[in-house]
Amino acid sequence: MSAFPEGTILGYPRIGRRRELKKAVEAFWAGRTDLAELEATSAELRAATRERLAALGLGRTDSAIPESFSYYDQVLDAAVTVGAIPARFEDLRSEDGTIGLPAYFTVARGEGERAPLEMTKWFDSNYHYLVPEIGPETAFSLSSDRVVREFAEGAAAGFTTRPVIVGPVTLLALAKASDDAPEGFDPLSRLDDLLPIYVELLARLKDAGAEWVQLDEPALVSESLPASIAALADAAGRALAVLGGAAARPSILVAAPYADLGEVFPVLAAAPIEAIAVDLVRGGVPAAAAGLEGKTLVGGVVDGHNIWRGDLASAFDTLEALRALGAAGVSASTSTSLLHVPHDVSDETKLDARLVSWLAFADQKVEQVVALARGLAEGRAAVAADLDAASAALQDRLSAPGVRDGAIRARALTEADFSRVSYEERESAQEALGLPALPLTTIGSFPQTGDIRRARARFTRGEIPAEDYEEFLRREVASVVSLQEDLGLDVLVHGEPERNDMVQYFAENLDGFDVTENGWVQSYGSRATRPSLLWGDVSRPAPITVDWSTYAQSLTTKHMKGMLTGPVTILAWSFVRDDQPLGETANQVALALRDEIADLEAAGIAIIQVDEPALRELLPLKKADQPAYLQWSVDSFRLATGGAAAGTQVHTHLCYSEFGVVIDAIRALDADVTSIEAARSRMEVVTDIAEVGFDHGIGPGVYDIHSPRVPSAEEVESLLRRAVDEIPTRQLWVNPDCGLKTRGYDETVASLRNIVEATRRVREDVVVAV
To answer: Residue 438: CB partners within 8 Å, gap ≥ 6?
Structure first.
């Protein structure tokens, strides 16, 4: 068994510095390239990553470089590797039983009548993973050797890397029961059946020359999963006894990031494995435990979640404290995979140099890990200059102009600012809106076409004047409004062609933010976003959305929704300052939105949507931390909307929210109407809604916009009828799961036509029943 390196990372961005993987994958999906071209581009990206990490200081041959590439999603990778695909996709296997890349993409995206795997958020991050479907009938087998081939690919180029795969406990703990499973079935009960496949995979990796393998087991830190921590710890102990006892295997590193390991740490310490990675940004230094004498502790002291340069001196102190536990070795690392941060801050040529000096993207975090590793090997004095430089940058950030603005902080709040009049009074006042039963609307955005993106790029480059660009956007808005009227929707949106991103658009118009050029981060699959940088106190210098909303409203006699992004989502989808409590920052954003709502009302907009799709996303993984989070997150939404008049209908939208987990918080938001993702999970959410007696307006989605599938009218009708069966009709709205930005117009129009037709059929029955 080889020694573990003194510095490593748990994973690296995989989409490419200029989103090369996204472009290659989407070209393959569109039929513009073939499988060989996609594989070649992907191999080039993996090779470039290995070379880059070696150039930054990670070892070429000591397993310091993780082999963490994925074409779409790491959970899907693991499920496909062990053959855990739903029965509806079984015919896609090759004759030898393997699952190739085209089939892999079909499982991810769906095809025809085959619905894709459900998608939800990866712990408390903004990354989305695909939810495996596992039942008693799932036949596990080693169905893909891609992880072995990618290791061998690196070996052929002179690298000994560390293959990374989602571990068996997390794979099962994140899975849902298959459609054919009996009620109450727990996928974790299949652990003993799954482990032989992991044993076989480990043997294949050992034969290929792998010296270390990384099993990602973040489920072990989460108290938000169906399985208890005690059950997960027991499963981990049993699993690692089998894997650690395998006759042929590489050394095993178990990584459990995103929160404190707590009571699971002694289980890992006692297991027959060689290394444990602990998140020391979200968790603390664990207590000493039996079994550490032969193990390496990999200290996650460099924040993989955020982009601040951080306090390296404090990080080094933490590594020294880790050494005191008596493990055989201590290694410096990132707290999580770096897939959550952009590639390289040196790519940002337009950011203020002072701001840049406060930042560390993925490459800079690798350099920090390398410096800390050198300090572990040679002593603190060897890296004193690195520690001092980071401390100076941190101090400069805390004292810079705009970080703390006295005028913003002087804005007084009272308890009344967080409340509207009763829902009953609002419901009565909003009857004047004249909406039909089962009102039809969309979530906000319409397709961002190539023409829109090209026009925005030309305007940004200064190739077209502002007046020409604005006229182009007006034509787009007029077209979207006309389309919705033709389709027969009841409450319209302007389509948001002027917005590059639902958070960045606001960041560009609020003080205290900056935006990047190339700060792309994977959201899911081929989709990437550029999180904004929230570095200072937040205020609104001028109205942001009023002109576009009033223009759109002038084109129709139907109601036009004003569209805002909520404070929690603006925080969740930005890289946020870490020098004050999140609740304080959220309230600053909320006050800016409160002013925007007042201006929209004054302009005659009677329905205003404040999107909070990230409400569930930021929920802490530890139950003890959840009440405080839910309090400030709800308060910030109520502060933003608390000034709205009784007759103004306030909507919100949530997606990937596991509604039942945060139902009390959603009720506490006190929005008049809440739309929520429900189509991909086939309307499972309505049971939660019905059971708790949720009495405000609710729009469970009927169109999964994360798949290119066009749902038939019959499919939508079936979903609507399930909703009508469980929720009073007076509460129900009809809408897609999410905004339509990522879809094309052909599929969007076809889907909306089917939604309108399905709603017409269900309305007829509702009217007869009444």
So the answer is: 720, 729, 732, 733, 734, 759, 762, 763, 766
Q: Which of 379, 380, 527, 386 is nearest to 448 (CA)?
A: 527
- φ and ψ at residue 329, rounded to 5 degrees: -160, 160
- Sites in the chain below the pLDDT cut of 70: 1, 656-661, 767-770
**Residue among 528, 687, 706, 511 at smallest CA distance from 595:** 511
Return the number of other C-beta atoms located less than 10 Å from residue 317's C-beta. Answer: 14
3-state secondary structure 476-511: HHHHHHHHHHHHCCCEECCECCCCCCCCHHHHCCCE
H or E element in which residue 385 lies: helix 384-399
**Residue 617 confidence (pLDDT):** 81
Q: Which residues 6+ apart lie within 8 Å of 635 measured at CB?
A: 418, 583, 586, 587
pTM: 0.91
pLDDT for 69 equals 98
**Buried residues in 344-361 as b, exposed as e (16+ CB within 10 A):** bbebbeebeeebbebbbb
Residue 521 β-bridge partners: 529
pLDDT at 660: 63
Catalytic residue among 340, 559, 651, 706: 706
Q: What is the DSSP string of 15-64?
A: S-TT-HHHHHHHHHHTTSS-HHHHHHHHHHHHHHHHHHHHHTT--SSSS-
Contact 345, 17 (CB under 8 A): no
Task: Give me the pLDDT at residue 1, please.
Answer: 62
**Residue 266, pLDDT score:** 97
Residue-level pLDDT at 656? 54
- Specify the residue for token string 């979207």: 480
Buried/exposed code over 422-443 (b: 16+ C-beta within 10 A; e: otherwise): eeeebbeebeeeebeebbbbbb
Q: How far apart are CA 659 and CA 676, in angstroms?
A: 8
E-strand ranges in 151-211 read 162-166, 176-177
DSSP 336: S
pLDDT of res. 770? 43
DSSP annotation string for 625-645: GHHHHHHHHHHHHHHHHTT--
Q: What amino acid is encoded at 402 in this protein?
A: G
For the chain, what percentages of helix, strand and coil (3-state, to nearest 5) are there? 45, 15, 40
CA separation for the pair 439, 535 (Å, rounded): 40
Residue 706 designated active-site: yes
What order do you get walking across the sheet with 212-216 strand by strand? 66-67, 162-166, 212-216, 251-256, 275-279, 296-302, 329-334
- Residue of 48, 11, 41, 13 lying closest to 25 (CA atoms): 41
Whole-number Å distance between alpha carbons of 82 and 143? 6
* Burial class of residue 218 in the structure, from the number of CB atoms within 10 Å of its CB (0-12 exposed, 13-18 middle, 19+ buried): buried
CA–CA distance, 63 with 49 (Å, rounded to integer): 14
Amino acid at 467: E
What sign has the CA pseudo-torsion 684, 688, 691, 694? negative
Q: What is the CA radius of gyration of the chain?
A: 26
CA torsion through residues 576, 577, 583, 585, sign: negative
What is the C-alpha to C-alpha distance for residues 392 and 353, in angstroms, rounded to an integer? 15
Residue 443 and residue 495: Cα distance in Å, rounded? 9
Residue 95 burial (CB count, 10 A): 5
Q: What is the torsion angle, in degrees rounded to the nearest 10, for the CA atoms of residue 285, residue 288, residue 293 and residue 296?
A: -10
Per-residue burial over 510-547, b if 16 or more Cβ lie within 10 Å, else e, is: bebbbbbebbbbbbbbbebbbbbbbbbbbbbeebbbbe
Contact between residue 283 and residue 223 where contact means Cβ atoms under 8 Å apart: no
Q: 69-79: string of b/e by CB count within 10 Å (b at 16+)?
A: bbbbbbbbbbb
- Which pLDDT score is estimated for 685? 79
